[in-house]
Amino acid sequence: MKLEKHLLSILESLHDAVLVISKDSTIVYVNTAYSVQFGVPAHKIVNRKLSQVEPGARILEVIKTGQPLINDYSYLHSLNVHIFANITPLLEKGELIGAVAIMKDISEFYGLQEELNKYKTYSTKLEEQLHEKIFSLLESHAPGMRQAVNVAKKVSDSEATLLLYGETGVGKEVFARAIHEASQRGDKPFVAINMASLPESLFESELFGFEEGAFTGSRKGGKKGLFELADGGTLFLDEIGELSLFLQAKILRVLQEKTFMKVGGTTTHPLDVRIIAATNKNLQELIREGKFREDLYYRLSIVPIHIPPLRERKQDLPILVNNILGKLRITYKKQITVTQEVYEIFERYDWPGNIRELHNVLERMIAICSKSYFVPEDIPSFVREGAERGENITDSTVQSKTNKMSLPGIIERTEREMLEEVLKTSRTRTEAIQKLGISRKAFYQKLKKYNIK
């Protein structure tokens, strides 16, 4: 069989559209598949100039350059379709005489791709909304707190070990839970343990678990430890600064090797948990005193996050009160509002117990309140008295300083003292910049201004 005689039959048998043009762009042939796919009968297009029908057709470029276009994508305006094509020049005795394009209509695929992109965009927006909802309890107007929340958001989806530090009651566990829920591990367990409450004699069995028969009176079948219970999720080690050096060594070994062994066991188990540690102590001070291992500190504080005390973010009191009362109203079945007088007293009080103390005070108030709103008399006396003392101290201090120094001088002195204090309690200058919530440039300008080395 001579293939030349059956060339048209071969082209007509193809399921892909075929278009052949001459060197002057005249359309000399289209196969049946072309007419079917694009709805254009052959007699309406053959012998017409393609340069007039579709001036931007990619096959015209092949005519100009003599170079093929393989796996080429283009959009045909005259047909309103997206196509995928292989276009090659036609040569006769080495001379270009035309070009042929074998095409697929990919409009449906392109449409599906656009729909997929829309769903991806929608999914991204939903994830962002979910992210914001997860961190809604940490909403703040205070620069220091907003800095801490921004860092938490950035690292939530990583595997970095975090160290949360701040005073008792600032909400370190709330931070840890938000980070966990916003991470890829969010659908896995979140296990929290207060290290200060764990007796040294039970440390290993509680954290690592034990095998059956590991010791006299041990539970039949053994017991899963907290590391195993948190498998795939997050383990929150609160009050990590309370651990003895002996127990710190055991934690360090597990973190380094990423495996653990049950008490009484002989096999190691892989560690698949994210560690978030927290402390209300100055670990660097403990390191200098020989009470905390420096290697463990660096292992835990890949990303340190300082959570400011409530006295430094009193502008957040309305947000915090609203969040806490939202739950207490359901528990106590009371719809109680807060008057401006109450807020003013709250703002003058220093809240040494931080958010935990605020929660305690609000629960006490809602439990005894018989009205639909709080009044100053509902506030515990120690809060009212503390607010009065704070107001008196503030007034006398400001008056005394004002007599001796101008307002710019007071501001500069306060700024210098804050810089010196933050530098003392920070491991690095980058950490100090993060705590202060200012730019690196502004930080170094202030160091130069106050001649702080």
TrEMBL record:
Pfam families: AAA_lid_14 (PF25601), HTH_8 (PF02954), PAS_4 (PF08448), Sigma54_activat (PF00158). It comes from Aneurinibacillus migulanus. Keywords: ATP-binding, DNA-binding, Nucleotide-binding, Transcription, Transcription regulation. SMART domains: AAA, PAS. The keyword Transmembrane helix does not apply. GO terms for molecular function: ATP binding; sequence-specific DNA binding. This is Fis family transcriptional regulator. Residues 138-367 form the Sigma-54 factor interaction domain. GO terms for biological process: regulation of DNA-templated transcription. Residues 3-63 form the PAS domain.
